[in-house]
Amino acid sequence: MAESVFDVVVIGAGPTGLACAIDAQNAGLRVVLVDKGCLCNSLFHYPAHMTFFTTPELLEIGNMPFSSPNQKPTRSEALEYYRKVAEHYRLDVRQYHRVDGVSGSDGDFRVHVTDRFGRKSDLSARKLIVSTGYYDLPNYLDVPGEDLSKVHHYYNEPHPFFGLEVLVVGGKNSAAIAALDLWRHGAKVTLVHRGPQMHRHVKYWILPDIQNRIKNGEIRAHFNSTVQSIREDEVTLQTPEGTLTVPNDFVFALTGYHPDFGFIERMGVTLDPDNGRCPMVNPETLESNVRGIYLAGVIVAGERTNEIFIENGRFHGALIARDLSAKIPAGMAA
Ligand SMILES: Cc1cc2nc3c(=O)[nH]c(=O)nc-3n(C[C@H](O)[C@H](O)[C@H](O)COP(=O)(O)OP(=O)(O)OC[C@H]3O[C@@H](n4cnc5c(N)ncnc54)[C@H](O)[C@@H]3O)c2cc1C
């Protein structure tokens, strides 16, 4: 049974979902957000002491100022800011409710939801906005031993790894930041990357730091190398010099993440195989090939997860709200 009828259900309460909800609400529509985790669940799961790459004003949504004493805000400042925004706009956010799927059609969608105790319910909506991000599904290495409990695909903080042999896999920002943080807090760090050097997208203030630690031998690095297998006490690497087995206590495989393409396709949205699996959307409205279903945030760029950030995804809400206003005139809103 549907508990209530909304003009819009927003699936995913990340920065983009919040921006979309605010814009739709400002257009006079009745909106609810649903998230399988907490508010801004992806940001919550970033490294505990991370600093954003972006200055605060570029993370702002809903015309609310984000003031920070720091040139680049921290994760906890961002979480505080988005909590305040949600509070200010009195957003209706159903946290810890995972959307399993969607049925129905434009004007009469059913959103099938399961809460953290396994209880199922439905929400009814005229229109849907999907802003589910990309941070839930890691790109796996697909090597033997990856399922051992010592292998992590998310980095949180360094303390539990003091004095231990840690392998960091990857060559971009996340790998560089984790390797440096672990090393600075007493872990013995080895970095392995399939490319010939750290990736060119590593931020200009992080790159010399990691390069110098590698040059000084403080972090051991293997480039043009891959992980062949992982066992309880060691890992085997494939390097240009041949196979190398090194002692190991923990592995951080920080090789990126990808959107839940299956979830999007099950709604009937077509992914373009010739364009990085970008969902088919009208670029002016972000309505997909399924009438009434809009896509927003990082998922609009498909596999190219480095194209849309908070900085630019936050403007998707305005495009969608304009189209929604035209299609659900204020007098007809729920
Ligand atoms: C370490 C790190 C640092 C970054 N730094 C920056 C930066 O400095 N500046 C910047 O602009 N960007 C940065 N990014 C990228 C940025 O965080 C993402 O682009 C941004 O979070 C995307 O926003 P979103 O709202 O589209 O998705 P998300 O923030 O990922 O939100 C998606 C939400 O959908 C929810 N969800 C997913 N599936 C379901 C489901 N089935 N049912 C219900 N809910 C669901 C998730 O729980 C999540 O809360 C960084 C990313 C990382 C990993």
From TrEMBL:
The keyword Cytoplasm does not apply. Coiled coil: none annotated. The keyword Oxidoreductase applies. Pfam families: Pyr_redox_3. Keywords: Flavoprotein, Oxidoreductase. This is YpdA family putative bacillithiol disulfide reductase.
